[in-house]
Design a protein that fits this description.
globular; ChyE-like; alpha/beta; Glutamine amidotransferase; 248 residues; two-stranded antiparallel ribbon
Length: 248
């Protein structure tokens, strides 16, 4: 069996490298067990080149892109990334292939499956209290997590109408869709399972001018992130790798 694949659409090198660090730390994977694809730099090309036959699963990281933005506001890079991800999801959904999209995954998988993604349920940067649904308590990716836990969020868009093909696994008071599943093996979370306090603090400074918060609030949010206690979301990624990784 080959490596897991992490697809990144972040154009900032430091944000990408920290996302890789966070995924490795959360999953327990070694660097050679994770193939990183910088979709912001290169097209996926033919899906066959991903060698899905030998890939245990695909993780899609977060993104500064908003899937629900009007096409006139999207860069050429974003349009290309979204076209590639749509082509990839055509294959993954048809094959029920293991997929976990974090934050941006909600927008890409949600739109691909006919859901409504808009700005009604955005959440400010910080922590959100996540609540598992009845179906979420039964799902193997949420095994071992408490019924409620804190997770890092920070997003301008979210699901306002769940795709008919999706099963709701988690929500929060401010955001009705925090995690869902399509078929048996495709998942998306609105919260960030790869983020730890250090990672969020760094991301706040990188995206201080991206419209998530007033720039003058960056230092306060940075310091607050470092003081946060968030431990459970990483288990989602760990369970993903445990469920789909090779049996040793």
């Amino acid at each position: 069996m080959g490596p897991f694949i992490l697809i990144s659409t972040r154009e900032h090198d430091l944000a990408t490298s920290d996302e890789v660090r966070g995924v490795l730390a959360a999953t327990g994977l070694t660097a050679d067990a994770l193939r990183v694809i910088r979709l912001d730099r290169h097209s996926l090309g033919a899906i066959d080149s991903l060698d899905l036959e030998h890939c245990p699963g695909i993780i899609l990281g977060g993104s500064p892109f908003n899937a629900s933005d009007h096409p006139s506001r999207k860069s050429e890079t974003q349009k290309r990334c979204e076209a590639d991800l749509s082509r990839l999801l055509d294959v993954l959904v048809a094959e029920d292939f293991p997929f976990l999209g974090a934050c941006y995954g909600v927008g890409t998988l949600g739109i691909h499956q006919g859901g409504t993604i808009d700005t009604h349920f955005g959440e400010p940067v910080g922590t959100s209290r996540i609540r598992l649904t009845v179906q979420g308590r039964k799902d193997p990716l949420l095994e071992g997590l408490p019924d409620e836990f804190d997770a890092f969020v920070g997003h301008k868009e979210a699901v306002s109408a769940l795709p008919e093909t999706a099963v709701l696994l988690a929500n929060s008071a401010a955001c009705p869709v925090q995690m869902f599943r399509v078929k048996s093996n495709l998942y998306a979370t609105q919260f960030h399972p790869e983020l730890d306090p250090m990672g969020l603090a760094q991301r706040i400074m990188i995206y201080r001018d991206a419209g998530y918060f007033p720039p003058h609030e960056a230092q306060r949010l940075h310091d607050k992130a470092l003081d946060s206690e968030v431990e459970w979301p990483a288990l989602v990624l760990r369970n993903f790798v445990k469920r789909y990784g090779p049996i040793e």
